[in-house]
Amino acid sequence: MDSAEFRRRGKEMVDFVADYLEGIEGRQVYPDVEPGYLRPLIPTTAPEEPDMFEDIISDVEKIIMPGAASPACTELETVMMDWLGKMLKLPEAFLAGQVGEGGGVIQGSASEATLVALLAARTKVTRRLQAASPGLTQGAIMEKLVAYSSDQAHSSVERAGLIGGVKLKAIPSDGKFAMRASALQEALERDKAEGLIPFFVVATLGTTSCCSFDNLLEVGPICNKEDMWLHIDAAYAGSSFICPEFRHLLNGVEFADSFNFNPHKWLLVNFDCSAMWVKKRTDLIGAFKLDPLYLKHNHQDSGLITDYRHWQLPLGRRFRSLKMWFVFRMYGVKGLQAYIRKHVRLAHEFERLVQQDPRFEICTEVTLGLVCFRLKGSNRLNEELLERINSAKKIHLVPCHLRDKFVLRFAICARTVESAHVQLAWKHVAQLATSLLATPRD
Amino acid sequence: MDSAEFRRRGKEMVDFVADYLEGIEGRQVYPDVEPGYLRPLIPTTAPEEPDMFEDIISDVEKIIMPGAASPACTELETVMMDWLGKMLKLPEAFLAGQVGEGGGVIQGSASEATLVALLAARTKVTRRLQAASPGLTQGAIMEKLVAYSSDQAHSSVERAGLIGGVKLKAIPSDGKFAMRASALQEALERDKAEGLIPFFVVATLGTTSCCSFDNLLEVGPICNKEDMWLHIDAAYAGSSFICPEFRHLLNGVEFADSFNFNPHKWLLVNFDCSAMWVKKRTDLIGAFKLDPLYLKHNHQDSGLITDYRHWQLPLGRRFRSLKMWFVFRMYGVKGLQAYIRKHVRLAHEFERLVQQDPRFEICTEVTLGLVCFRLKGSNRLNEELLERINSAKKIHLVPCHLRDKFVLRFAICARTVESAHVQLAWKHVAQLATSLLATPRD
């Protein structure tokens, strides 16, 4: 949608809202629809090609309005999460479908999703241990619980452990900054020998620092064998999995209990929209609902009625699935794939520019939209380069440390980025490097 | 703002967004402003009278845009929370000001705020006990921690205890459904005698069931004396405290450590916007940040730099304070007060209509916008009346149980509600009651 159409459609939406408010007394205060009314009314998958905006708007009146805030808000979310799950080719077990035991929910952020998964895992292991030995108190169990993530995992994972009141240990990553079986197994054995109870592992696909990928095919089977909950955090990288050529990065997701990524990061859905799937929704509900048996009576673990307030930390909910519905239909799967591919292509374009300059080095493999690079030489030199880049304020780079190296991160993320911007950015960086290297070092 | 102006202004906003996106390459990628730049640029209190929309929009360009997403997003939130705190006449200690140790933060929901407060209290008491006896493990402490709320408190309080891994006990409320000193003290003594550690109390102002108010002036001093964190949940009623005639309902807030209410419920700010204040921001930060000492070096407990990601569960944040800024300025304090007063007036109008019908009874004192009423007679009779009301779908009532009584709840909450709606609603209810009472009972 170009700027001119945005102005036109935006103004139509303003009138849509005003008309709705003017006519609101003509509407029923409570919907006539039955639970499950929505799914049959819309396709089972996202469109490959873009839909017409007119069709989307008329569907709002036809499909959403009769369902009011509830159940429309809940049911569209369930179906949109199925759409998105299918785009990623998630295993069937993660989808809600008509009768599935899994399903998706929109969280506010990946940090929230990690915490929710940890709390669900904590409850599950606590119940299992208490069933085995009824004498055990929750406190006695929590003292022994230990969770794991790579030393490259986002700080929010450590934070989730803090909030959840359990130990979290960092597993040393390998030379490619990936968590591997050997290091995880080693930590497990040591902790079990000390009487601790390993219960939760967070694997990261696309780390914040350098977009490295934990080895799911190694880590997954260990989690299953050791009866540990495996949560996958693919906050940034997840969007790319809608492209067949990147889907292999998700291989091993079949071992996971929960999976999360942020469409608000790289799939053109406005913040916030963090997509989380679980294989067994009852595991989530169990952590937030006092009496899971009660739920069963309400068939809440069938696909028919979903009570999302038991899937998340807050009770209140917004109608965030509308954003997904509009974006998926306005772009179509092909449009979204093209968007991802363009960013990756531009990252590689920047990578080549760096490689052609002997003063610089590429620090990690460029897989998606992030290029980690640096001037050959000291950390101090690169810190000075970053200082000059960010104080010039033409582009903005956020650095990271990879082991002992201070590294610059060039991230492709603007919606409208083109090759010309990448070329300009590199020219700018190269010039600043030239002037930096020309200044006498003390 | 009437419908015609909404259409005009809404379309201006669409153009504002489109212009911004078209001109974005002309803007700096990083702001020039220094931390603390925003506060001096705007008034220290909300306007009494409405501002002009033109002035608000031009302030967005003048005041917000130069501060980009950060620090503008953070600083406007801090100042808006001060504005709102002053509207409520919160004690100075809860305000950030220039150098305050307290301050406000926007959470997503009251349930989130309760959980955040509970986690902060849990961390604080754990650190205190471990400082006294370093041998104590967190697990050993958490096993003994116990929190309290009235038996009328929202279910999200019980949920917070579940997530926080601590016991939560319900204090029997009195004849007016309020938590009183005697019942709380009794529970405290019993639990302390059993070796438990009371650490957290949630007092509710305006309960969900019948808008009853816990007795802060009794409960507060006990919390302070016993060194228990007092959190006040005024999710619905809080908005009314901007009116001098209702402010007395908040008396005793000076005893609290944290206070929360939802401007998205009754102050015309769109969902979500849950306003939470704390007296000591370091208490919150301590629960979510691993090394509170590190923060001190960054002066993060001064009013100058606020890192809200340490004040909440998710890390990501939206620019929700813009909603507050627009609403407070579009209505002015007087406009917001008038809105609250109108709703309360209409609730009393409905109350009088009920009182004039000898078949009905009012069940609890009408303080704000909620009227609890029922047909004199059996619960079954009232359940049938509710069934007829809600299946007619002209109005929608949510019931509650008060002790053994099934009670109907008439809540004034629509933005555009008028006396005519109240009269119609009552006529409708009275007619359905007549036909119900005419049907032969088996």
From TrEMBL, chains A, B:
GO molecular function, one term: pyridoxal phosphate binding
EC nos: 4.1.1.28
PROSITE patterns listed in its UniProt record: DDC_GAD_HDC_YDC (PS00392)
Cofactor: pyridoxal 5'-phosphate
Record carries keyword Lyase: yes
InterPro entries with a match to the protein in the record: Aromatic_deC (IPR010977), PyrdxlP-dep_de-COase (IPR002129), PyrdxlP-dep_Trfase (IPR015424), PyrdxlP-dep_Trfase_major (IPR015421), PyrdxlP-dep_Trfase_small (IPR015422), Pyridoxal-P_BS (IPR021115)
Gene Ontology BP annotations: amino acid metabolic process; carboxylic acid metabolic process; catecholamine biosynthetic process
Enzyme class, first EC level, given as a word: lyase
One Pfam family from the record: Pyridoxal_deC
Pathway this chain belongs to: Catecholamine biosynthesis; dopamine biosynthesis; dopamine from L-tyrosine: step 2/2
PTM annotation (N6-(pyridoxal phosphate)lysine): residues: 265
PANTHER family given in the database record: AROMATIC-L-AMINO-ACID DECARBOXYLASE (PTHR11999:SF167), GROUP II PYRIDOXAL-5-PHOSPHATE DECARBOXYLASE (PTHR11999)
Subunit structure: Homodimer.
Family: Belongs to the group II decarboxylase family.
Protein name as annotated: Aromatic-L-amino-acid decarboxylase
Organism, as annotated: Canis lupus familiaris
Source organism phylogeny: Eukaryota, Metazoa, Chordata, Craniata, Vertebrata
Encoding gene per record: DDC
